[in-house]
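Input record, target 12 of the design panel.
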C-alpha cells in the first residue's frame, strides 16, 4: 500500500533533517508522527519514528540537568496545535497571552520581561490551541535555542506594537533574524497590537510588505478585545488542521469532542485515527458536511473538510 505522505509530513521531515539539536529533532519527529497517514502502508514508518522519539527522550533523560538546560528548551504540545509568539521587545506578546489564555506571564513596561517560554491554552470554539509566549527577538540579544523552538512549532504569531516609531526597522530586523535562524513563515500570522491608535491600519499594512505578502495580518487590542475572535480564526487556519466528528448509526455526534487531523485527511486516514482496525475493516462511510449532501456515501479516498461528521461502517 502506498504511503501517500502529506505535505505536512514532508514539511516536518524537512525540519527534522535540518534540526541542529536533540530538542529540535524531537519536536520535528513528534510533528511527523502527528502528520503521517495512519494505515498499513505506513506502519513501519510509524514504528521507526516512535523508535527515534523514544531514543531521543532516553538520551535527554540521561543528560545532567545543566546539560539539558544548555541544549535548549522543549515545550510539550497540548491541544490542537502549538503557536509560538515572536516579536521585538515590548510588542505586547505577554499582554495578549494574559488575555486569551490561562497563563500568567509577567506584563511590564520594560523590555525583556519574558525570559523563558511560557505556554498557555487559548480556547477556540470547541477546542484548545496552545500559545507559547517567547522571549523577544532583537539583534545581538537572541539566544540560539529560541530558533529551535520556533522551527518546531506548528505556527508562528508575529506580534508588533503598531504605535512604535521603529515599527519598520523592527519588522526588518525580525525578518533578518528569522532567516538567519532558518525559520520559514509559511504558517505565520501577523498581529498588530494597539489597534486603537490613529493610523493603525496604515501601519499594519506595512508589515506584510516587509515580512511576506501572503501572511494574514490582524490589528488587535488586548485591552479592549478588538478583533481577538478574528485572530483566533487566523491562528486555527494557520495550524493546517480540521475537526472531524464521528457518529454511530441513528445517533447524534458529540460536537464537543472532535478528532483534530491534518488538512487534506482522507476518509480512511480518519478511520485509522478513530481506531487502527477501522482502516482495515472499513466497508463504507456516510458523511454530513461540506462537499456532500447529508448522509452521502463516500469512497475511502474522499477528502474530508473541517466540521464534517462521519459515520463509519465495518
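The sequence produced for target 12 reads:
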Amino acid at each position: 500500500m502506498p504511503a501517500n505522505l502529506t505535505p505536512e509530513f514532508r514539511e516536518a521531515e524537512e525540519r527534522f533533517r535540518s534540526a541542529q539539536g536533540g530538542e529540535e529533532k524531537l519536536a520535528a519527529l513528534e510533528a511527523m508522527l502527528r502528520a503521517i497517514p495512519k494505515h498499513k502502508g505506513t506502519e513501519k514508518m510509524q514504528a521507526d519514528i516512535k523508535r527515534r522519539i523514544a531514543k531521543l527522550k532516553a538520551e535527554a533523560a540521561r543528560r545532567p540537568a545543566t546539560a539539558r538546560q544548555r541544549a535548549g528548551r522543549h515545550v510539550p504540545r497540548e491541544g490542537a496545535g502549538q503557536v509560538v509568539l515572536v516579536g521585538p521587545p515590548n510588542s505586547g506578546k505577554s499582554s495578549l497571552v494574559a488575555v486569551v489564555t490561562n497563563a500568567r506571564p509577567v506584563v511590564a513596561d520594560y523590555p525583556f520581561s519574558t525570559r523563558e517560554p511560557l505556554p498557555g491554552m487559548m480556547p477556540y470554539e470547541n477546542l484548545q490551541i496552545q500559545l507559547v509566549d517567547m522571549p523577544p527577538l532583537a539583534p545581538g540579544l537572541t539566544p540560539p535555542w529560541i530558533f529551535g523552538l520556533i522551527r518546531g512549532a506548528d505556527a508562528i504569531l508575529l506580534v508588533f506594537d503598531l504605535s512604535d516609531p521603529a515599527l519598520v526597522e523592527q519588522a526588518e530586523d525580525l525578518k533578518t533574524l528569522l532567516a538567519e535562524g532558518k525559520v520559514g513563515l509559511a504558517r505565520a500570522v501577523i498581529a498588530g497590537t494597539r489597534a486603537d491608535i490613529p493610523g493603525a491600519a496604515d501601519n499594519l499594512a506595512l508589515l506584510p510588505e516587509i515580512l511576506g505578502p501572503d501572511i494574514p495580518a490582524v490589528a488587535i487590542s488586548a485591552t479592549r478585545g478588538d478583533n481577538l475572535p478574528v485572530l483566533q480564526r487566523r491562528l486555527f487556519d494557520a495550524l493546517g488542521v480540521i475537526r472531524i466528528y464521528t457518529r454511530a448509526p441513528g445517533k447524534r455526534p458529540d460536537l464537543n469532542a472532535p478528532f483534530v487531523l491534518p488538512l487534506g485527511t482522507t476518509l480512511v486516514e480518519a478511520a485509522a485515527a478513530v481506531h487502527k482496525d477501522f482502516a482495515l475493516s472499513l466497508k463504507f462511510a456516510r458523511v454530513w458536511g461540506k462537499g456532500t449532501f447529508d448522509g452521502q456515501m463516500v469512497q475511502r479516498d474522499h477528502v474530508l473538510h473541517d466540521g464534517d461528521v462521519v459515520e463509519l461502517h465495518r
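The first strand starts at residue 82 and ends at 86.
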